[in-house]
Design brief:
single chain; mainly alpha; 3 helices
């Protein structure tokens, strides 16, 4: 039983570390896009095209965050098992 708990904690830790790597790459790449926009004339009022990758990728960042930090108990297999076991 102890090994199962350790394994579950390890998987959660891996998922959270994965989210942090995802977030860091999001920030770095989008800052790079903003830099390209800025130095290619964006500071002169050109169309802010980096908004599209920022928004598109941002949606996946939000879902990744919710999956790792928020909805663990809502979509929990153990929780559903206990509910079904109680109804039997």
């Amino acid at each position: 039983m102890e090994n199962q708990r350790d394994e579950a904690i390890w998987k959660l830790a891996e998922a959270r570390a994965g989210f942090k790597r995802h977030l860091l790459s999001y920030v770095v790449v989008n800052l790079f896009f903003i830099g390209i926009w800025y130095f290619s004339g964006g500071r002169n009022g050109r169309y802010f095209w980096p908004v599209w990758p920022i928004l598109g990728w941002g949606i996946s960042i939000v879902f990744h965050y919710l999956g790792v930090y928020q909805s663990s108990s809502f979509f929990s297999v153990e929780r559903e098992y206990e509910k079904l076991k109680g109804n039997s």
